[in-house]
């Protein structure tokens, strides 16, 4: 009898977990927001700019998949300007061509061994960008792609 009760318990546990997984899987938008937040708080502008000045652009890994690694860059002396975000692969290749940073430089090597500058990296989708909070002096990354709005022609 104890064996049957144990099997029954694990059967109920499995069914409950299966139900929760099915519920989460069928709620796509909410699931995506929980797994991949739309915004990433990076911290104070001055400390991030200093980190980039001393060590080069920062490669941030995709936390859920493996195709949306991004590179955060800053140039110039003004912490409020000249921030950019790029995808961590060459503009002329897809995400399977990973890059590696040449240590403490602003250069990268790609899957073909080419040396690349930040400008040679792919542009992120529309909506994926750095957001500067001037009042707080902080940087937030918007990681959620926004659909492009179709061009409309005014009618008279």
Please give a structural write-up.
By secondary structure, the chain is of the alpha+beta class. It has a domain of 103 residues: Rieske Iron-sulfur Protein (3-layer Sandwich), CATH 2.102.10. 28% of the residues lie in helices and 22% in strands. The chain is built from three helices and nine strands. The protein is elongated. The model has no long low-confidence stretch (mean pLDDT 86).
Cα shape? elongated
Class by helix and strand content?
Answer: alpha+beta
Number of β-strand runs: 9
CATH topology of the domain at 40-142: Rieske Iron-sulfur Protein
Which regions have little confidence, pLDDT < 50, spanning 5+ residues?
none
Strand content: 15-25%
Second rung of CATH, namely the architecture of the domain at 40-142: 3-layer Sandwich
The quaternary state of the protein chains shown equals single chain
CATH structural class of the domain at 40-142: Mainly Beta
Q: What is the CA–CA distance across the termini? A: 82 Å
* Strand and helix order: HHEHEEEEEEEE
Looking at this protein, list some descriptive labels:
single chain, 156 residues, alpha+beta, Rieske Iron-sulfur Protein, 3-stranded antiparallel sheet, 3 helices, elongated
Summarize the entry for a quick read.
With 156 residues, the protein is an alpha+beta fold. Helix content is 28%, strand content 22%. The strands form three sheets. Strands 1-9-8 form a three-stranded antiparallel β-sheet. Strands 2-3-4 form a three-stranded antiparallel β-sheet.
